[in-house]
Amino acid sequence: MFSWFDELKASVEAGIASGIEAGFKTLAESFDNRMGEWSKVPEPAEPYRLIRIFRPATDRTITQDNITIEQDSWKIVSYGEKKVLLFEIPEPEISECLLMCQAKVKTANLLKPAKLVLSVKNTGGWGYEYCSGIKGTTAWHISTLPFHYKKERYSGSITVSVEFESVGVFWLKDVEILQAAVKPVDNN
User: Fold this and answer.
1) What are the average pLDDT values for consecutive 10-residue runs of the chain, which has 188 residues?
2) Alpha helices, H only, the chain
3) Are 182 and 97 contacting, i.e. CB atoms less than 8 angstroms apart?
4) Quick check: helix, strand or coil at residue 126?
5) Exposure pattern of 75-104 as b/e (b: 16+ CB <10 Å)?
6) Domain residue spans of the chain
7) The CATH classification of domain 49-180, taken from the options 3.40.50.1820, 3.30.300.20, 3.40.50.300, 2.60.120.260
8) How many angstroms separate the CA atoms of 139 and 5, rounded?
């Protein structure tokens, strides 16, 4: 009896749902594009140079719980979700540069990824993290975290940490902080 009304209602609902979906898709794409530009790491103008290296024989981690030294590496054991703060370095003295944290890592029995994290706060106090996640059991390999530092965006020290989402073991050695000048962008 009211089939025309039901059809009209279904058509309006489909139009609204389609419009909302298209709006969210456009918003998400716009956000992804802006965030991509924000977090994009430009090319270095020169080779990276070592500014700091951390080794178990000469350096202590900030967090000490469940960290032992095994041969020439730190062995970090996790029994659940936790953040292990390892090292802190002062912010660079130059206004803009590329930083890279590079470390040799291996893992055992990680049910969920553990992340090697390089973090810094912006001038408003918000934290930014650049991370590399590793899951399962892995052999020694090099993990790198590039970061585009601009003094007007960030303030304070830069930290290196490991974040666990589950139980497991994370070994770490030869943690290097590298720095390079930023290659000028050609806007032509």
Assistant:
1) 73 75 64 52 89 94 93 94 93 89 95 92 74 91 91 83 95 95 75
2) 3-39
3) yes
4) coil
5) bbebeeeeebebbebeebeeeebbbbbbbb
6) 1-40, 49-180
7) 2.60.120.260
8) 65
Amino acid at 25: K
The answer for residues whose C-beta is within 8 angstroms of residue 72's C-beta and 6 or more apart is 55, 56, 57, 173
- Record the pTM: 0.73
CA atoms of 58 and 91, how far apart (whole Å): 22
State phi, psi for 83 to the nearest 5 degrees. -115, 130
Neighbour-count burial of 41, counting CB atoms closer than 10 A to its CB (0-12 exposed, 13-18 middle, 19+ buried): middle
Q: For residue 148, what are the β-bridge partners?
A: 98
- Kindly report the three-state secondary structure assignment for every residue of 38-68: HHCCCCECCCCEEEEEECCCCCCCCCCCCEE
Rounded distance between C-alpha atoms, residue 163 and residue 169, angstroms: 11
DSSP letter at 31? H
State the pLDDT at residue 26.
64
Q: Residue with structure tokens 């749902």?
A: 17
